[in-house]
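Appendix B, Record 12. Input sequence as logged:
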Amino acid sequence: MAHQPQIVIITGGARGIGFGIGQCFAQRGASLIIADINLEAAQKAAAKLNTEGAKGSIGVVCDVSDRQSVEAMAGQAVAHFGCIDVLINNAGICPFIDIMEITPKQWQRTLDINLTGSFHCTQVVAGKMLELGTKGRIVFITSLSENFTGPSQGDYAASKSGARMLMRSFSTRLGREGIRCNAVAPGMILTDMTKHHWGKPEPAKMIENRCPEGRIGTPVDIGRACVYLTSDEAEYVNGITLTVDGGYTIGTG
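Logged structural output:
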């Protein structure tokens, strides 16, 4: 990167996987824009990350499904830091509603946030990178559900498989301009949002038995992958999905 520290936008960065990603960049002295639908939570997360090594991070409100909100967020980032080096498209929802019961409104909301939100953020932030001549890095947080699904994940899987192809499309357009786009597909990750299930003895034992690593993943596991994909070490890595699941999808029989 031409300038240090990296200036990194993380959508949905106030908690869970987004916050874990922030922790990994904070350890490397990055300056973070924590963009979240909850402004107070975003500001608290940014302040906490500043105590963990981040430099002058800020929390801003952003509804990724709203184009004007995304444009305002990107404008704040450039006004405050002068540039944007990295965008992490992390914001997302997973309602877990049976595909035969989900309403058109609920279906559309998942797509608006998970898929169209990533489109808005990438197009707007990449536009800023191009204007400023930044060799930017963009990471989409997808899911194992881009390839595997079930009756209660139809909307989520459709949005995440769509996000994979969206990332590939942007990578073909932006690669020649020095902006790399890749994705990270998390496996089973323990967060505040998932601990009600994966924290139970039976599901936890299933993970332990099936995953070669013998444990459930953490947000920091995903953060480390994001740091790699946005580093100089990944200079020739473009348009790929890096699965970070401890080998879960391989299984152990």
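The longest strand covers residues 180-186.
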